[in-house]
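G., before I forget:
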Amino acid sequence: MSDSHSHSDILLCQRCNKNHASVISRKEKFCTDCFRNFVSLKQRKQMMSDQYYQDIFKVMYKDKLRSEQDAHLQNLNSKILVPLSFGSSSLVMLDILNDTLLEQSITHRGKTGFTVDVIICFHDEQIQNQIKENVSKLINAKYKENNQKIKFHLVDINQFFDNSPHLQSLVLQETDFLIKSLNLKDQSIIEKKLTLSEILDQCSDRSTYQDLLAFVTKHAIKKYAFQHDFKAILWGHSMTRLADEVISLIVKGRGSAISSSLNTDDFDENYGNKFKNLYPLKDILLTEIDAYCYNSGLHNYLINYNIQDALLVNKINQNTDKIQTNSLKNKTINELARNYFEVIEGDYSNVISTVVRTGDKLAEPKSQENFKISKCNLCMQKIYSDPSQWITSITENKGHPLETDEEKENYQRWKNYNNDKLKNSEMDFFRLNEFVKENGSKACLCYGCTITLNTFKDKSVVWPVHDDKELNSVLEDYVLTDHEE
Amino acid sequence: MFTAPSDPVNVRKELKVTQLCELCHSRKAIIRRPKNLQKICKLCFFHVFETEIHETIVSNDLFYRGERVAVGASGGKDSTVLAYVLKLLNERHDYGIEIVLLSIDEGIVGYRDDSLATVKRNQQQYQLPLEIFSYQDLYDWTMDDIVETAGIRNSCTYCGVLRRQALDRGAAKLEIKHVVTGHNADDMAETVLMNILRGDVARLEKSTSIMTSSTGSPIKRSKPFKYCYQKEIVLYAHYKKLDYFSTECTYAPEAFRGTARELMKNFEAIRPSCIIDIIASGESFVLKQKMGKQNKKKIITYNDGNRCERCGYLSSNKICKACMLLEGLEKSRAQIKIQVQVPGEPQQEGPAKVLRTLERLTF
Ligand SMILES: [Zn+2]
Ligand SMILES: [Zn+2]
Ligand SMILES: [Zn+2]
Ligand SMILES: [Zn+2]
């Protein structure tokens, strides 16, 4: 593909017919300005997609519906939360929001319809300094003028456990795939304090690790939105990212969660119905975002992200091979789905949008007969049918009878072995698990989380009880400014 | 006192407890089930494999006593194991069904000849009646002729359309109203992914149904292997030493399906349970009701009495799918002759177009 673009000086932007084209997207040649416009318009279209969002983003004035005071208050209270991961998408989205604020400021004599709070989550101490440095660089280079309208908050997601008044132990019974849970009111059952990394270390594969981390991060963001009265969370997901999310949810047995995770119409019911979730970049491919990111100089602020130059007229010539060396076995489900879309984008360009559109057509599942819809103790997703019942209905869990003396002998040895294991172990996880199985109550886990728990070393996990207390226990944040060291 | 060393024949290596089957805890585990990662022994594997299929049959009421059931037998591993297990379960649990092996001879030289020979041996081995219908008999076309005319790219879909109706027609001729096929969990999962990737909304909700019947056909179809992993079917055939023909259909899937298949292989490599997980997802799919478009939701009721004008086969359309397809083939056979004279002219009325029309008809 690159060969045909090598004579870049011949290419003219097809929008303005003046400037040289720097990006080729959807079979059209764009100059940097026209492409920025193209992407920006698509984001703004999503931000104006219905009345609720229009009320947030538009600059309000006194009219039939509201007094001057009301209008002023509405502008002031239109707070949106923007999670920033320092990947290309969230940086680009923030850039477009900044432009929107600047434009409003100019056309409305200093007034804006909304304010932006950026939330940056981290769990690894080492990355903290780089985040601080990048934020201060960003503010100085880009957001000085909107100093009052865009604020940056740093949240340490290790608070996940410290921040939870009640912990529970969730244990999977292998025989019937039922989940037993026990509230650990008396935390002394566990000798030392639990940390997020200890829980994450129990994951047997990278996929599960990333899923748990993603949940904990999302939980922190939504909890923050709940506690600080935000009207909406603007997620930076590109169309490509949403497509890989849809596929990954299906592959993880979480297909029933697709409709709720793509839902931008309703308030988030897991967090007190206080805010909605919006995906302003859902009409834009990741390759397009990367092109925007690079052409706007935003690539200087990326952390742990490699930009794709597929649509750029002048290739960046960076060592993209590095990403590919990660072997197939080490990839997560999301990464595999992402790879698939990256490869397929050339030959079947509409597959990505098809997947997102199809995902959008899915409704909330019907609940199984005689099944009371409940919520997953782990991921808070709604459960529409009993996973353990489904699994046991398609999985036989009895064996072929014992026949020979040797077999009977082996069986006896196995029994003794297990008894010894139980006797000799201290109050560790094995003991605790047996205790929970005997004394715990039946808990609800969604199908996906049941499968996740099955891949854990001990088939168990200690997890916060997601209740009102937990939701209201204050999440500490740290405000970042432009003068970090 | 002298003790004789024990007879070396009786010395056996004592199995470590961790090597034991996780179900019976008494025999050596030799298989790790992809479904739940359980390590089990051979005898327990036979038991769970057969019992799970039995459970699927019973909980979905697939059969009724006295029903005559045709097993679509291709000689491949899926259908061979299906014939074997169905016969076994029918005897073990007394379903009271009558099983007939039904084979279609597409006329694929080299592939079909050998696989038909396998089916014929299966007939002897399992003592089940066998009926063979050929494309030549049913459509006056062989698969090799079709490929020559339609191009190899579309052959699998063609093959599917024709084979599907061929099985139905064959069953109808035998006055059998139920065809069981060896579609397994892997096929099911692939279909779910394909329907999402292609945006095939019309088929999305039904991607995972165990029982289907195509429009225009009085024959119902079921898939007792819906929850069986391909890998376990192969293992079962292997350990039971079943006689099957191991070569896959020589006509490769169309390119896009190929990409989906590879994607699924990759998923499976990092998470073996994903096949059943995808089916779990697929079973939850419900489409949003379109608002303000109620008038569009008119249900086209199928008149049972309709028959194809050409061949008399039951069909909701004036001309049945197979006849449509054959008409297209006739056209393109003529066109190929023209195209030889006018090279470079884009093919307008080709089989691909007919195929698209046909696919729309299916909904
Ligand atoms: Zn331009
Ligand atoms: Zn869950
Ligand atoms: Zn066993
Ligand atoms: Zn016909």
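Residues B 308, 310-311, 313, 319-320, 322-323 surround zinc ion (ligand 4) (CB under 6 Å). Chain B touches chain A through 56 residues (CB under 8 Å).

More on Monday.
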